[in-house]
Amino acid sequence: MDMYDRGRERRGRVPYEISWWQLTTILICSHLSLVVSYTPEITGWRPPVRDAWLAVLLAWIPGFLSSLAAWWVAKRFEGQNLFQITRRVYGRFLGTLANIGLIAYFLYWATLITREFSVFTASVVFLRTPEFLFAILFLLIGFVAASLQIEFIGRGAELSAPFVIGGLLLLILGSLPEVDLGMLQPFLAEGWLGVFRQAATPIVVFAEAGLVALLTMPYLNNLQDGPKALQVGFAINVFFAAATAAILVGMFGVELMALASFPAASAARLVRLGTVLERVEWILVVLWLGSMCVKLGLLLLGARLGLSSLFPGIHPAWLLSFVVTAVFIWQLFILPTLAHVLEIFVFRLRLRAWPHLAAELTPLLLAAVAFLRRAGADRS
Amino acid sequence: MKTFLHQLLRPFLRRRRKEEANSGEPSRKSGDRDAEKHRRREPADDPVRTHPEKVRFSRRVERDLQLIQDAFGHSADLVVRRFRTARGEEAAVVFINGLVSTPSISRYIIEPVMTGERPGETVAAEANPLAVLRDALTGLTYGQCLLLRDGRDPVACDVRDWEKRSVPTAELEPSEQGSNESFLEDLATNTVLIRRRLRTENLQIEKYILGRESRTEIRVAYLRHIARDELVDEVRRRLQRIDIDAPLSLSFLQELITDTPWSPIPNAVLTARPDRTAGMLLEGHVAILMDGTPMAMLVPGTFVSMLQAADDYASNFYAASFTRGIRWLATLIALLASPVYVSIISYHSELLPTRLLFTIAAGRDGVPFPPLVEAFLMELAFELLREAGLRVPRQIGQAVSIVGVLIIGDAAVRAGLISPFMIVVVGLSAISSFAIPSPALADTVRLLRFPMILLGGILGLFAVTMGVLVILAIMISARSFGVPFFTPFAPMVGRELEDAMVRSPAWRQLYRPWQVVQLGRLRQQPSGQKPQPQSSREDPDGS
Fold first, then answer.
1. Which of A204-213, A325-334, B66-75 has the lowest mean pLDDT?
2. Considering only residues 16 to 35 of chain A, which have any Cβ-Cβ distance to chain B shorter than 8 Å?
């Protein structure tokens, strides 16, 4: 019974709806889940500069512009999902090709995330458990989330975002007594060039928001709220990413940071809460799990929606099963060791994976082509 | 196939017949002989038995009496009293013994008709002419008396009077400072208890008869200007599609109208308190009451509403907010205390401060079971004690609990079977489960605790968190009559958070829940309800 689920009753439009706050929390979950696990603003360039926090403050701008482009596109093609928009903008043939590319990218991204998160879990907390076990568990939860559609992912993000924020707050506040401000000084010791180098990886990570926004924005119940959701989401992400970077550099110093695989988890091991808890890395992991599932669910949903646009006759559940199976098999063959996973966040190597960056620029490209071709504009 | 089966079962059937003959039990051969005779006499498609709603009365006493007696199969408690009216016409009254007031029948039905005081009519307060047999049968089972006269439609007079309890105190959901009235098994009284709290013409009460055999009366109550039309229509639709022999209880009925048939989490609120029912009706919910059940079912039900108690609105809002917070905490402890303890002891002992760890280790010294088995045994023992305490008389139940908790627990610790810490953890989670106001939710939490302990024992905190995620997934994807079950948290409704985990002051409760209300979301005037007593310094006279 869908009495109050007005989203499903919108004829000729995308089914389901999310609120602006749900969109905000999806953005938060998809970014902060990475900050808690791999802290790319620190690990992107080793050793990091003392002003890594400043690099974060610069890195969000391209991602925000890309997200705004996603909002503009969603507004121009109101009521259509990403894959329908692509076909309208590029035309039937090129649009289908672009959609195939996007599906491949979502599959690749979901595979990457599954692998990254299962390696993280196996390296930080369950040292003797095979990684594929975590991949299965994560994909099962992701399957459930994706099968229950964007509405469920939105609600899940609403609940998970406060937890991941709480986990980071716990880490930041608990680490404060250990922070040596001298480690952060002198200001701009490596110059602006060092800061820009350090910003390279966060730029790519923040740019992921553009694609997340492109996927979720068409479901916004009031498109006028799009910019508000982006502003709040980016503000929270930037604050926590910058604060975490500053705390970690202030706590360990840049030399030690060059060696840490999971800086946030390393810091959490040192945090003590009075005489009650000796270390909080477990709490951090527990609070992180929900946001991780939101991100994975969203990527699986993206791949499934793309396949549905290509094969409308096949039941979505079958397509989703195919997506999850493909991701599981694929992740068995990529990034065999922790070192390989960590290299993903090194900017030089990340650039080599050009499809990743190209896909992240999709909203800007889509907006530019739509503008030039006047696609979706009111011709009357 | 049928022949083959018959051949196969023949020896068994023959032996059974022989056994019945030898035992001499009054089975179908003697005891039920009359009933059997009637059954055989009636063809399977007799409309009196199969479609009484299609059988019309003939306005002839003998014939109509025969219809009713045939329908009841000459039941022993069906009483027929024949007499003649003052005009000499044939007449009869029919009723079921025990459901009616016989002095009232004599005084207000038979006497006026016989004596010619009011030859055409009775003086019963509620008397309705009937046209079809179904109405008569239902009326009789609800304590009405049928008056049959030649040449007239039968009349159903309300003279119901059966043994019932007086309004009881709310033992299941007691209140410290508020009313302690509770529903009882009588539907009419329950309706009155609601109406006494909502004396408005907008309170609508609809009547349904459910159950092919039980003919159970169901009443649906709502405030017509507050509850959404779609919600009321949906309740009607779901009730009308029910076609079973007997809805035995409200929980049974709930399973027939729920949105999530396989979910372990209840999604309707069951309450025995009329004040809580009235409060939820004012928020746009719909109440379903059932004859013979001292509870009301309120739909849609949300998780938040299951953690609210009537006392919240009968005490100071600071105290109410505090106790509401305690209830949330209790729910978490009831679900997670044992699984988290098992996880930490089994896998994450590094999380604990060293002194605490040594204390726990010393307590576990010599315990032969791993923490997982220990927790399972203790939780099972607790459930056993609880069940035993419920099944025996109350005085003995208390003794069973005391014996179980004090003596068996102490003996188990002394014998080195269980560690003292485990007793503390299980005791804490048991007490916490009693702090959950909704018995249905408390049962679910107790049930879910077992798989969570198992997860904690297998994969530690990671698996416990995954389990919590699964439970959250069930809750946030569930709906109750179209309303998201986990609202106002997911989807988040900012204004309604004020009355979710805390209880806001009465003057701040401006809005009704938006999902269930159709018009007039405002409960009160948006401004001016906050008390603003005149300050002594601001004298209106200016003196």
1. B66-75
2. 19, 21-22
What CA–CA distance (Å, rounded) separates B61 from B488? 61
pTM of the model: 0.78
What integer pLDDT is reported at residue B521 of this predicted model?
67
Is residue B281 assigned to a domain? yes
- Whether A282 has its CB under 8 Å from any CB of chain B: the answer is yes
Contact B472/A290, CB-based, under 8 Å? yes
| CA separation for the pair B431, A165 (Å, rounded) | 32
Closest to A175 (Cα-Cα) out of A251, A279, A67: A251
Residues B352 and B424 in one domain: yes
Which A residues in the span 154-173 are in contact with B, Cβ-Cβ below 8 Å?
Answer: 154-156, 158-159
With a pLDDT cut of 70, the percent of chain B lying above it is 85
Separation of alpha carbons A151 and B95, rounded Å? 57
Q: How many CB atoms lie within 10 A of CB A345?
A: 23
Whether residues B466 and B339 share a domain: the answer is yes
Specify whether the CB–CB gap between A115 and A335 falls below 8 A. yes
Stretch A18-23: mean pLDDT, rounded?
Answer: 92
Q: Is there a single domain that holds both residue B289 and residue B231? A: yes
**Confidence at B27, pLDDT banded by 50, 70, 90:** very low
Q: Please check whether residues B325 and B370 belong to one and the same domain.
A: yes
Contact status, residue A321 vs residue A117, Cβ threshold 8 Å: no
User: Measured between alpha carbons, how far is B466 from A65 in angstroms, rounded to an integer?
Assistant: 35
For residue B353, the chain A residues in CB contact (below 8 A) are: 275-278
Q: Do B462 and A121 touch (CB under 8 A)?
A: yes
d(CA A253, CA A41): 14
Residues B330, B456 within the same domain: yes
Contact B477 A141 (CB under 8 A): no
A154 interaction partners in chain B (CB closer than 8 Å): 491
Structural domain includes residue B174: no
- Contact assessment for residue B80 and residue B69, using Cβ atoms and an 8 Å cutoff: yes
* Interchain proximity A282–B490, CB inside 8 Å: no
Judging by DSSP bridges, how do beta strands B216-223 and B269-271 pair with one another? Answer: unpaired
Tell if the CB–CB gap between B484 and A279 is shorter than 8 Å. no
Q: Looking at CA atoms only, how far is residue B249 from chain A in angstroms?
A: 24
Contacts of B355 in chain A (CB under 8 A): 275
Cβ-based contacts of B356 with chain A (< 8 Å): 275
Complex-level ipTM beyond the 0.85 threshold: no
Alpha-carbon span B217 to B438, nearest angstrom: 25
Contact A89, A95 (CB under 8 A): yes
Please indicate, yes or no, if residue B106 is contained in any of the structural domains.
Answer: yes
CA A118/CA A124 separation, integer angstroms: 10
Q: Taking the domains of chain A in order of start, what are their residue ranges? A: 17-359
Burial readout B137-173 (b: 16 or more C-beta within 10 A, e: otherwise): bbbbbbbbbbbbbbebbbbbbbbbeeeeeebeebeeb
Q: Before B540, cis peptide (omega within 30)?
A: no
Number of domains in chain B: 3
Task: Report yes or no on B533 lying in a domain.
Answer: no
What is the rounded (10 degree) CA torsion for A273, A274, A278, A282?
-20
Using the Cβ of B514 and the Cβ atoms of chain A, whether some distance falls under 8 Å is answered with no
Structural domain of B275: 187-301
Model confidence at B41: pLDDT above 60: no
pLDDT at A307 over 70: yes
Instruction: Say which residues have a Cβ less than 8 Å from residue B352's Cβ, sequence separation at least 6.
Output: A277, A278, B344, B360
Judged by a CB distance cut-off of 8 A, whether residue A137 touches chain B is yes
Domain A17-359 has CATH 1.10.760.10: no
- Do B471 and B420 lie in one domain? The reply is yes
Candidates A285, A261, A338; CA nearest to A42 is A261
The bridge status of strand B479-480 relative to strand B483-484 is antiparallel
